[in-house]
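BUG-183 | component: ligand-complex export | severity: low

The export step for fe (ii) ion jobs runs without errors, but we want the raw record kept on the ticket for reference. Input record follows.
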Amino acid sequence: MAVPKSDANENEISRDRLAELLNEDLSREYQAIIAYVVYSQVLTGAQYMDIADQLEIHAKQELDHALIISRQIDYLGKMPTVTPKPVRTSKNAEDMLRYDLDQENETIRNYRDRIRQCETLGEYAMAEQIRQILVQEQDHQIDLARWSPRTHPAQAPVTQLAAPSRLDRGVVQMRPEVARRKR
Ligand SMILES: [Fe+2]
Ligand SMILES: [Fe+2]
């Protein structure tokens, strides 16, 4: 049964606009690759060794995401961007992990929107690809929330830079039992 389209539907989106938004996503993936490549190498201290190893894994997963998103942009007939979003730097390990967490929160918020937009356009296969990326981004978010000292106590929501209005859009809250996910 066809659902009638409404001009007043604020979720209405064109394929060109979707390609533009996917290019924003691609810039965020480049940003994540750069951040994880650098942070994984410069984190120092015995307490960060395991975390640095995990950040290297994140870096490789972000590259996979960039390739998938680029393919979707090409499929939509547009040119994938070559420009990353700016990467914040710090010599402080806690800051680095918090920057990563902030980026993951922003990425997740955008991919949730993108899935809905793909489905609005009937691009169900594309929505499914992004859904699979989203699963990994949420794993990254959980890892970072576990490692970031500023997310303690356990009830603290993982929304340092998120506006309050985003709380109801599904940014996860950490619980100890979730944080103990095995690798
Ligand atoms: Fe990613
Ligand atoms: Fe990620």
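Assignee comment: Attached the raw record above. Residues 142 and 178 are 8 Å apart (CA to CA).
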